[in-house]
Write a structure and sequence with these properties.
mainly alpha
Length: 168
């Protein structure tokens, strides 16, 4: 056997093994990226759902015409007890681990706005049609829509993401 043939075979084997390793590394990265996006999508959906459900349960309790401690307990219980998921605060903690900082900050702000709405329903016995409640809940829904858009953008592959304002 000639040395040239042996050298070409060795180079071909090294090239083949190298190409296989590179392909496996790239596939593993892609699969990890897809898994991460799916994890974030699940947490984002859970958080948005928990906020919407908490709001719905709170407003149902506000319509029940209860007063004083009974109303306070009913609205707080509606805010905290989600039969499908953990309460919004628990899912917010999951989101803190999975989301980029700008998404988490926006989510924390929206969560706080819902707490403010809850406190208004509890302490002032404001109904959902009261102007005080509308001043609080209007910005909540607007910011909830903005948060949803931030989450949607975060789930897009980098070339398709919209540019965020504010230097981020």
């Amino acid at each position: 056997m000639e040395w040239g043939t042996l050298a070409v075979a060795a180079v071909g084997a090294v090239f083949g093994v190298g190409a296989t390793l590179l392909t496996d590394v790239l596939r593993a990265r892609r699969e990890t990226g897809q898994l991460w996006v799916e994890t974030k999508r699940t947490v984002y959906s859970r958080f948005l759902t928990s906020l919407a459900q908490a709001h719905s349960r709170m407003t149902q309790m506000a319509f029940k015409e209860e007063h004083g401690a009974a109303r306070q307990h009913a609205v707080h219980d509606a805010f905290l007890n989600d039969p499908q998921y953990s309460d919004a605060k628990s899912v917010l903690r999951e989101l803190a681990l999975a989301a980029p900082d700008h998404v988490y900050r926006a989510a924390a702000s929206v969560y706080q706005q819902l707490r403010d709405a809850r406190d208004l329903l509890v302490l002032h016995a404001a109904g959902v049609d009261a102007p005080e409640y509308q001043r609080v809940i209007g910005p909540f829904f607007a910011d909830l829509e903005s948060l949803q858009q931030l989450m949607r953008d975060d789930l897009q592959p980098p070339p398709f993401r919209r540019t965020r304002s504010g230097g981020e």
